[in-house]
Each structure stands twice: as C-alpha cells, then as structure tokens.
Amino acid sequence: MPDPYGHRALLTSAMVQGYRAVPGEERDRLRRYLEAVVAVRPSPVHTAVAFNAVYFGYDIGGDGYGASPLRLDDFPVITFGGSAPALPVGAMVCVATGSDPLYAEIVHREGAHPESGTLGELPAWVSGAPLGAEGPGAPGDGAAGTRRELLVPDLHAFGPALSLSSTQLHRLRTRRRWINEDGHVVVDVRYPSPEAARRDDLTAYADHLLTTARDQLLSPFVPVSLAALVGGTHDDDLRAGLLGLLGTVRDVLGSSPLLRTWRDYAMTRTSLADCWRDTGPLGGDDLRSLASAVERAATPPKRRYGLTAPVTVYTAVGPRLRGFPGATERLRGVGYAAAVCRANLALADVVQGDSEQGLFGNGSRITLDDAFEGGGVWRSHHPGAEEEPGDPLAPAGRGWTSTLPAPSEPDHAQEHDPVDLPLADDASLGTGELLRSDAHEIVWRAPLRLAQLMGGWFPLHPYVVEDLRLSHDVRSTVRLELDHVGGAPDTEQVQQVTAELGDESARLTGIAWPSDFFPGLVIELRRLRGGTVIRLATTRLKERVQVGDRETGHCYDPQVLTREDVPGSDRHGDSSAGLTPRQLVMRTVRRCGLLTLDGHALMDRSQLPSATYGRRPARPQVAALNSAVAELLTERLLEPALGSRDVWGQPHFPPREGQRTIPLIGYRPAQPRVVRPWGSSDADGDGLQAVQLVPGHLRRLQPGCSPSEAQRVAFRDHCRRLGKADGWELPHGYTFVTEHTRGH
User: Fold this and answer.
1) Which of 648, 667, 686 is the last residue of a domain?
2) Which pLDDT tens digit goes with each residue over 127-150?
3) Does the CA dihedral 298-299-303-309 come out positive or negative?
4) Is residue 327 part of a domain?
5) Is 289 found in the same domain as 168?
6) DSSP, residue by residue, 121-185
7) Are 213 and 91 in contact (CB under 8 A)?
8) How many domains does the chain have?
9) How confident is the model at residue 426 (pLDDT cuts 50, 70, 90)?
10) What is the pTM of this model?
C-alpha cells in the first residue's frame, strides 16, 4: 500500500498543474492511498482532509498524524462558545480544556444559526443569507462580521498517544464547557469581509495554510515540501501550486470507482450500502423517511373548494436528523458528519432519479438552497411547475433573495446587437486577502478590478478602516506611495488621494493608475498603524509572460484577467459595440465560459451565438461567429475540448461518465509553467516518460536503520532553501532523499 513517507513520493511536481497533467501511474498510486484513507477514517473525507493525509503523512495503520513529526505548538487554539478566526475544514487545532489539550483536525463545519428549529425547519431569510444579515431583507452594514458555526473535530486524528480516553471525553461532553454534549465546538467565527465568508472550502483552506498555518505548510518535516514541488518560496508560486494540488486530490477522489462524493466529501460505496441496509437509527428506513418528508413538506392538503396559495418550506438537514428516535448517539463526534453527508447524498439521489430537474409528480419542486447552513438546507416549493427550472443541486439561496425587494425588469437587447456581458463575480469586488495584521502594520493584497481601474478607486481593508476612523474624518486626504518597479514611466510615485470611510464600502478614490496597470494586476498595500501613509506595490515576475493579448512582468490574478481584460474593456469603458466577430467570440468565451483556477475558460460551443447576442441572432451573424471560431482554433488562440451535459442541461468539464458528450471551445491564456523540464509532456500520462525530476523528500526508515551523515547534511541544505532557521536535524526514524531524476 502506498505511504506518504514510503520509497516513492505520493506527491509529484506534475500534480501542481492539476489532474490532467499527472501521468497515469502517479494518479493510480495516489488514488490507492486516498482510497485506503477514506476506508479507515470514521467520517467522510473532505478534499482538504485528504490533502492533509498525503501532505502531512497520515498513517493508515492506526497512528494517524501521530507518526508524523508535526509541531503541535503551531496549531491555533479554539475555545468552545468563544470567538475565533475562520477555521476551514482541514485546519489542525488545539481545543482548549481545563487540563489536557485536545489536538484535533476539523473534518466538518456548518452554519449553526440560532433560529434553526428542532425538526429542521428554518426561516426563509436564513437560507443563503450573507455574512452579517440581521433579518428578512436586512443584509446589515456589509462590513466585517461574525457567524455562528459548528465545528466537528476528529479528536482521534493524532493517534492513541495524543487522544483522550473514552472516559475523559465523556467527562468533557457531560460538563459542556470545552465541547458540547456531542463532542463538537460551537464558536462565533470572525471574518474580515463578506467576500471571505463566501470563499469555497478549498480556497479558504489554501488561505489558511498560507497564513495561519504557514509554518506548518513549509515545515521541512513533511514528506514532500510544497516549496520543492513548485521550485521556490514565492507567495504566488506557493498559492498556485497549492491550489493545483488541492484540485488534483479532489479529482483523484472523484475518479475512484470505490468512492462516492457529496460536494467535497468522499465516502466508500461499501459504507453507504451498509447504511442503507441498516434498520437502526439513521439507517436506510430513516433516510427514505427524510426524503419522503422533504418531498411532501410543501404539498398542500387537499381541499374541496378553492385554490391553495403557494407554499415554500426550508429544511436544514442537521437539525432534522436529531428528530429521529435513537439518533442522539449516532450523531456524536464525527458520526454527525457521516450522517449529514449520507442524508444529503440520499436526497440528491432521489432528486436526480425521481424528478425532472427537481420537479416531482406531486407538483413540488425540491432543490438544494444552501450547502452550508445547518448541514445543508433543502427547499420544497409547491406548485413547482411555475418556477424556472435549473440545476436543483446548485445552491441558489432563494430563501434569502425571496425577502429582498423585487428587482426592476432589465431592458431586452435588440435582436441583432451584441449583448454587453456583465462582469462575472461582481460580488467579489471586495477587500482582498489579509496578509498580516499585528501591532505595527496591516498588510493586504487584492487584484485590481476593471471597475476600479475605470473609476480610479481601490477598496480599503476593514482593519485599516477601523484604524483610520480613530484619527480621520469620514472623508479625508491621505498620502499614497506607489512602488511599481519596472513599470510605465508615467507612474506617479506619490499621490494625494481621498479616503472615504463612510458606512458604505470604504475606499481610496482619486487614484491616478499608471498606464500599464490592467484588470487582474495583483496589488499589495500596507499601512503602519497610526500612520498617514498607505504604500501600494506590485510584485515583479522572474520573467515577462504573455497572457492572451497582454504581456506583463508583474504578478496577476489569472481568473480576474480572463474575465475582465477582454476585448472592448479598458480603463476608458466596457462595451461590445464595434467589435469584430473574432473579438466578440473571445469576449463571450472569456466572460461566460466555465472558469478554472488558472484562468482557462471553457464554453459550450452550441451556446456561443445566444450568449453573444442575448437571443438567437440572424443567420449571417451565426455564420460570422462560426468562421471566427474556426480561425481562432486554427491559430490556437482557442482550443477544442470535450465536455458533457447532464439531464438538466448543465455542461461539465471534464466529461462525466454516463452523460452525453458535447463539444467545447476553450480559452487558454498562457502555457502552463514547466516544472519538470526533462519530463514527459503527455498530459494524460499514457506515453513513455523519459526523465522525471523528483524533488527532495523525507522517507520513513525501517526499524533499526539510521540515515547517513551525507543525508543529514543534505537535509540541512534543504532546510536552508526553505528559509528555515530551525529544524536542522532529521527527525528520528526518517532519512532524506535528495533531488534526483528518474527514467532514461
């Protein structure tokens, strides 16, 4: 069975480029290990937890992370009932107690809104509500805020040597002071911005590893260091490589025939089958009862006369499971995470198998409305036929939006005029990523957006706003210093700009952006606490790169660049008027296509005409678009790809088994970075690999063996390259395998 500290490293340089770049042999080796991890873990394994297992060295023999030389003192401490910074699934923590500390891995988290009913009923406005929402249609001030969350820790993840006995845990559960009666931790989680609260699990975990758990991530004691895999310690390289690894792990889990997944959670098919055969609490009978109850929740009683009014019911899975007789013991510890995932998967199977895009025979429409609150909120609406169909498993947040004022109807586009496509993810025009906040300074980073470039403004981080309000008026002048090395000669190094600190989104206005600034350019800002200067800097790349039509020598966000730096968009405006068919095609694919982490955009080719013009255009226009697509494919500015379409009409990439295959057109902004310069270029891993670069990594020794002095010296050099001033000696029981090539 493969082992993270075994003779062959499970993580390789190819994996930072994503699943498709990994040779088949390496995929299979990683898949076998992850299947074994899912089989032995007592709860469903989230992608972040699976990454932890392979990156930090989880021993499937029973010791868990206890056999890995992790530094427990690096773990953040959480206190039951208190407040805490955001702790995503996968975070390794220390749960405060009155005596012995509890070391744990967060394996599940969900919203724990106090208005959840005992049988899972939930007020409509809670489902899909943004951070800081105060009630129906009351979104709050939109600034930083807190959210009540339930964290499920695996208290046995670090093996028996670092776990409390069953008697000790029972005592802690009974006291309900450090953990609740179920062994869970409920905390008020602080978020610096609403955008941070909306991040998906994997992005949130990557942020956590690169900030709070940075020492843990860059530890020289992990099986294979991320810095070695990406070839450096630059923040942008580490982030791109980490997101690539997380994506590879997710796709490897999804490709296993032995596993089933619910969103980012993986379970064995064997455990699911055992659950359905179980006649006890939360077994097959209770799951069928739950599905039936959700299906009938909104069905009005039969009346002899008159029409019934529409009915909508929101059911939170977690609280609803607690209502089944005998369920209490099954929901203790990590058993709660298992029960919630199985229940959601059962509901999803019923919706996919027994309905038409969520519409059931009794006239009700069942959809997933919120994937986070209460373990998942399902919406039952009758009559469902009157609603526009869509993907019933894509959380729509209709509960919250139903309490907002109805938007005014937009004007319909003219039949023969191209549509000005809206910017994707406009809600993420936020404060960016907090890099550091201490007694001396606040540092944050964010990509420049098109609206900011056009308007000459940039958002302020809430921590900076709070500090500025102590000494500045609501509207005051501050000094902005630009550090744009290698940039345009027209760069104004020092500018006097306005800080608007009102209740609305706080920002700097009146900025004269240099002429070579573009949407997606990553900007880092810092302010000394109590100071009057804000420093704004860009980061140079090691070499200039060509990204689509843009050449740059500075760090950029590939997703923002793809979406917003399109034909017809610059600092002077954003319009499709006057564009050629080629430019219209590129604009539409980049604005409407499925966006990947590295900035690729993939679009269903059959939808291109309607997406470009808003409705079916005239035949000459369709012919012109098709001709433009052919030219762009020939010139390799676009590339063909294959996807699939599900029963609800939603496209997917890569194509899913059992679905109808459809042609896609893809925009690739830049060639991927070459990490293995002598390796095979076969993306699917089917070709013969000539020479592969293997980064330096740790390997567990057999009992009684010890490393040579040469390997001890090599490990010290490895630590120096990681910038580690401590941890110079190899941990006991391990040796260091130096960087080498494999193959011929």
Assistant:
1) 667
2) 999 888 888 988 876 556 789 999
3) positive
4) yes
5) no
6) B--GGGTTPPTT--BTTB-TTSSSEEEEEEEEEETTTT-GGGS--HHHHHHHHHHTSSS-TTS-E
7) yes
8) 4
9) very low
10) 0.66
